[in-house]
Design a protein that fits this description.
The structure is a single chain. The protein has 3 domains: 82 residues, 2-Layer Sandwich (Phosphorylase Kinase, domain 1), CATH 3.30.200; 253 residues, Aminoglycoside phosphotransferase (APH), C-terminal lobe (Aminoglycoside 3'-phosphotransferase, Chain: A, domain 2), CATH 3.90.1200.10; 129 residues, no CATH class. Helix 5 runs antiparallel to helix 6, helix 5 crosses helix 9 and helix 7 packs across helix 9. It starts with a helix and ends with a helix. The strands form 4 sheets. It has a 5-stranded antiparallel beta sheet with strand order 1-2-3-5-4, with helices on both faces. A 4-stranded parallel beta sheet has the order 12-13-11-14. Strands 6-8-9 form a 3-stranded antiparallel beta sheet. The longest helix is centred in the middle third of the chain and has 29 residues. A hairpin with an 8-residue loop joins strand 1 and strand 2. By secondary structure, it is an alpha+beta fold. It contains 16 helices and 14 strands. 46% of the residues lie in helices and 15% in strands.
Length: 471
């Protein structure tokens, strides 16, 4: 990646920070070139997928749509540089501004409408610029693509949650549903993963769109269903209706549609999208051991129940409908919590004068790091009233290279165990930092460790405490 930076900017980057992993295997890096330039470096092993993103990004930019610009690409197409979009995801903003009943506030609804206003442009205008021969893994969301999604649901969700079903009866209804959905007009650009985590609200308040490498020809209904039935977003039914009405009004500015037929097929695509998402929750959560995906199961079940009660499947699919009713009312799925199976890391600061903390898990393992070799601000009168959480002490350690090295080394050591524990399904790990008084050095190190784990391993539950300070 450094070579690409030199090739494009003529200089080495001054800082590279690996960003937390998302649902895919791609790796993202925030790269600071200079005080005025920050970019994103991307590494992906699937060359065809990378080529799809690069091609689509260039085409959508040509269509004046708000997407990252690709700056430089490695000869093997496994690395590329793109512009950095500073801001929060739509999902993060939604989480921060929920009302007491869980619904988004008026400002967030306005953001959703601004996002939705852009969607027909991607689907209709973007399609005029896209080279669909670059699509990966398939050029069109057709019968085979839909069946892949339904089987993804069957094998990675139903099988992994040990729900019982008649495979032949389910397959019969899958075939009928695919044939029905394939009757929808599909000569449009389907973003494929149009959901709140892939939309960034920039510092200018405008939406920007990422992660469209799975795009292909497809029906208009799929993307809006992806956004409005995004499980963790948990949009209330009333606002979902309002936003769908808004989308249809915007869409009519670009294409003529049979609104009644459109709404009917929208519901059918919403079912497919929820089933595909559940397959992802099972695959990423159970098989790839990323428990935070499993927290999306209860809202997905509630979305299914809402659809079944308010928008029944538009064609007769008796076995599928009854089966979806069964799982959407399943108490275990409705109350599923990844916390039951997650790795919990206990991070604590302490004073050696009062002994090493007792391990309540009974494992007798974990790490105990001795911070007493680090320069101690507690030796100076001006710091005696502060702790390692206060700005004055943080500034003190910013000038101590040995502290930065100590923190980085401890993070690397702990990370080895965290990765292995996640892979093997272990449930607890302790990381303790001790100093003389349990006030400055150990507190600072524990804070940095908790921050590191929360940022890079969101699936891990981090319990942070400061034994002497908490007393």
């Amino acid at each position: 990646m450094e070579a690409l930076c030199v090739k494009h900017f003529g200089t080495q980057p001054i800082h590279i920070e690996k960003l937390p992993l998302s649902g895919s295997s791609r790796e993202y890096y925030k790269v600071v070139i200079d005080d005025n330039t920050t970019i994103i470096g991307t590494h992906g092993y699937e060359v065809r997928e990378n080529k799809a993103f690069i091609s689509f990004a260039n085409s959508l930019s040509d269509a004046q749509l708000p997407v990252p610009k690709v700056l430089e690409v490695a000869d093997d197409y496994k690395w590329y540089l793109q512009t950095y979009i500073e801001g929060d995801t739509l999902f993060d903003i939604l989480e921060k501004h929920r009302l007491s009943d869980g619904s988004p506030d008026n400002s967030t609804v306005a953001l959703y409408k601004n996002v939705i206003k852009q969607l027909p442009k991607f689907q209709v205008l973007g399609a005029q610029h896209i080279d669909f021969s670059k699509c990966y893994p398939r050029e069109r969301f057709d019968y085979q693509s839909i069946m892949w999604d339904l089987n993804y649901f069957k094998y990675y969700f139903l099988k992994t949650t040990h729900t019982v079903f008649d495979e032949q009866l389910l397959e019969n209804d899958f075939v009928a549903l695919c044939e029905y959905l394939c009757s929808a007009p599909s000569d449009y650009f389907m973003y494929r993963d149009f959901q709140s985590r892939n939309i960034i609200i920039g510092s200018d308040g405008e939406p920007y769109f990422v992660d469209f490498q799975g795009g292909r020809y497809g029906a208009l209904q799929y993307d809006i269903a992806s956004l409005l039935y995004d499980g963790k977003a948990a949009i209330t039914p009333e606002i979902r209706i309002e936003l769908l009405d808004y989308y249809i009004a915007e869409l009519k500015k670009y294409v003529d549609i049979d609104e009644q037929k459109f709404r009917e097929m929208f519901a059918a695509f919403a079912y497919v999208r929820i089933m595909q998402a559940c397959g992802s929750y099972g695959y990423r959560g159970f098989l790839e051991n990323k428990p935070h995906f499993l927290n999306s199961i209860p809202p997905a079940m509630r979305n299914l129940a809402y659809l079944l009660d308010n928008h029944p499947l538009p064609i007769k699919l008796p076995y599928l409908e009854n089966y979806l009713r069964s799982i959407s009312s399943n108490e275990e799925l409705l109350n599923y919590s990844a916390a039951k199976n997650a790795l919990t890391v206990t991070v604590m600061s302490f004073s050696y004068r009062k002994g090493i903390p007792y391990d309540p898990t009974g494992n007798g393992g974990g790490f105990v790091f001795d911070c007493r070799a680090i320069h101690n601000p507690g030796r100076y009168e001006k710091y005696t009233k502060f702790t390692g959480k206060d700005a004055e002490v943080i500034d003190f350690f910013a000038k101590e290279p040995e502290m930065a090295e100590f923190v980085q080394l401890t993070q690397r050591i702990v990370e080895i165990s965290v990765k292995k524990y996640l892979k093997r399904g272990f449930k607890s790990l302790s990381v303790l930092f001790g100093c003389t008084g349990g006030q400055h050095r150990s507190v600072f190190c524990a804070e940095r460790m908790a921050e590191f784990l929360r940022k890079n391993y969101p699936q891990v539950i981090v319990n942070l405490s400061h034994r002497e300070q908490d007393r």
